[in-house]
Design a protein that fits this description.
The chain is α/β, with parallel strands linked by helices. 43% of the residues lie in helices and 21% in strands.
Amino acid sequence: MRIHYAWANVVYLLLYYGLKYRRKVVMANLQGCYPDWSETKLKQTEKKFYRFLSDLMAESVKSFSISEAEINKRVKITNPELVNRLAEEGKSVVHLLGHHANWEWFAFAFSLHCKHQLYFIYKPLSSEAFEYAYQQFRSRFGAKPVPMKQLFKTLKEPSARPFATYFGSDQCPQPQNDYIWTQFLHRETPVYAGAEVVARKFDHAVVFGKMRRTKRGFYTITFELLTENPRALPLYTLTDLHSQVLTDLVDEAPELWIWSHKRWKFSNTRNERAHLSRPLA
């Protein structure tokens, strides 16, 4: 990784000082989430984020060739027994996380050390070549990419072992999508409803994965069980729980979340709790 991080240092200078890549978006997001922060702290966090983003790009390139031994060296799961107990009991799970730290290496480590079959939900690409490359990349250590429109069909099919459906629900939905309004990063935010829909429909246990960076290129993962009985929770509670746990994680190390994404594109002008095409069961 030394060569990868060497060019990551150059990429940082290019992104931050040369291209000034989405710096207005990043600063607007930080100011909106942390209005009480000083200008100095905002600027420090902004620079730390761009350094991490450059490292993440380097790690993504390495992901195409990284070995099982190196993943085991760089990503440690502190409590795999939590999810493996659910697998041994025959329970599939909805696995929640966010675009925080290195979620690709998270999936690699999960596939190597956990007993569930990992399903990645994704939107198919228009290019056949890129679609093939994407599927090869995501499935390197056993994960199975599942097209978004085939998710329910896939979850209903018989499976040789329990599965974990991987949701990173912290991207901004489109106004026509199904979403739930909640508090995320200290502000009202629309969140994709898919994780709660799947958990309630199939009565799957729900686990959150906390990934932390211990030093450059090294991470730990700690699982937290949010519920084994999602149908017993009041509507939208699961979405609120996910958003709060992810907020707490981002607050610990804000530079590890992807601030360059245009996360808050529209506001709750109708004062809705949720925008759904059909009621949640």
